[in-house]
Amino acid sequence: MDLCALLQQYAEAGDDEAAAPAQPEQQAAATASRKRPRAESSKRDGETLDRLVDAFLLTQNTPVGEGADGEEEEEDEEPVTVLEEMVQCDVGRRVTVALLAALAATEHAKRGAVAKALLELFEENEHLPEHYVACRILSALTRHGTDDVQVGVLDLMRQRGTTWEGVRKMLCDRHTSVTVEHLLQRVPAATAEWLCEVLGLSAAAPKKKKASAKKAAEEEPTAADITHLVEDPVAGQVMQRLAQTHKANAALLQTLDLDALLETKRGTALLAQLVSFPADQPPAAKEAAAAVERLYQALGPRLKELCVDKSANFVVSRLLQLLPHTGAKSSASALEAFVDKLGGAEELRTLTQSSIGVHVANTLIDVAIATDAAEEVAALLMPARHVKEMLTHPQEQLVIRHLMPLVAKKQSKAGQLLLHTINDDTSLAYDAMGNLVFQDYLKALGPAGASHAARKMMKEDNLLHMCQHASAAHVVHALLDLVDSPTQTALCNALKQYVVQLATHINGRFVVEKLVRVSREVRDELVKQFTFLARSRGTQHLLCTLFACLDARGKQNVVDRVLVPQLSALAIDQCASITLQKLAQADPVAREAMHKMIRENSRLRSDLLQNFYGKFLVRICETN
């Protein structure tokens, strides 16, 4: 275990050196004396690693000594080498894996030699890839080996899996399936091509002669066989990884029984992966159209039921994301066809009231906005007579928030409807759900619109009440980020006289934390009341934020006027002691000042150690 720890240190050191940025010449020269011991230590570490590698390579040809009974091995049998015995021992496996990781991290010159020695051992011994210990070394070779070694591991697995039965055993065996999964990560194209060929999922699958048609039928995997792989707890992980390569997705969609897949969690997850594509690699129109047609064929009768299923709703969402890529003349017509298959506009609005189905509706909105079909979808989801009720509904407010980008478009009827409805509803900011809608509304308006809304609030003179309200406080907090600079200053000035009162309020303190970061006048006002706030409940995080936002002069002012003179009284107070502890942990200036006073005043130190609250401050100051 000590050797494993040593090798792990080499691996971490190699990663640190690779990630460390290059230093300027002046800085390097200034710290030359400090760096010299580290450089010498690195050199010694490199020499030690070299010796470990040389010793490891010697085990390749070193036979194991005679057994305990003293009998010599038969001349016909080849002697077992130390390396062969090592890879089958759990302790040796740990050392070998740690060595491979260290060589890969440091890019050692003999990394390839060590990996090839291990690969040759696996090629010569057929039982090793399935050995419960050695298989983990084969996986490590895939992760840490060079490109040619990874290809060698793939060739080794390909030789063992030339038939359907061989691949099935390999994927269902927890010892070999991990190696195949890692190969799909490291060598995705070649590994996927091999698996697709054997599983009969590619055009390159070998054609059988007529004479052996019966035998071929027995060897060819059926749809039920592949479905069994998907549902297998071990092979299912490999099939998920295979689906991520997109090499066999079209064939799997046409081969598998989608109804059977939708009955299980693993099958549903695989189906969702089969119809998922990276944003930067959209599918071809023909491929997308075939996938949509196959999904409609399988999901059609159960589409509404699947929309509210906690697993299958992801499949429906992926189906919606495929619609713009099918090559249809109009995205709006494709989305309308989906709504028709769902059962019409009434069924679609029913989804918006479901905690799961609403996410399908939101995906429909996102696709519609991206394809300029938002007006048609908004008309279906947001009838004018129901908009006001939707603003505060737990699920339907999510639909409104997804439609909020339309507010910025003056020609959008849905956007103008939202604009007028929210403007006329002054109570929206005070609602538990409505405040979320109002925040997204302010974001959609942009800095100019948000600033106009803020000035309107200041004229109504209800900012203090909003800051103290559990929901409206979040609106004020968001406003400080969204408005322009003049309006932000005006907000700070309007709230400056209330900051001490708000700092001790359970909702207002979060607004004050935002004000502290943007207004020096607010910081000065709070510094004047530092002692009072330190003794108040719930202000500890606010005061740490305040201290962190002060410049060097401001910090020294707090230290000289508050921390040092009143340390003995504050440190034994239930609330103030927590403030001092957090300051000592977060800021070196405060910690050093308090530590100096405690160190120089032995009586103060003794009194604090005898106090329940003070002893924690002493320990923090003396241990950091």
UniProtKB/TrEMBL annotation:
GO MF, one annotated term: mRNA binding
Iron is among the record's keywords: no
Sequence ranges of Acidic residues compositional bias: 68-79
A single cellular component GO annotation: cytoplasm
Record region (Disordered): 14-49, 60-79
Keyword tags: Repeat
Compositional bias ranges of the Basic and acidic residues kind: 38-49
Name this polypeptide is given: Pumilio-repeat, RNA-binding protein
GO biological process: post-transcriptional regulation of gene expression
Signal peptide range in chain numbering: none
Source organism (scientific name): Strigomonas culicis
Composition skew (Low complexity), residue ranges: 19-32
InterPro entries, per the entry: ARM-like (IPR011989), ARM-type_fold (IPR016024), Pumilio_RNA-bd_rpt (IPR001313)
Transmembrane segments: none
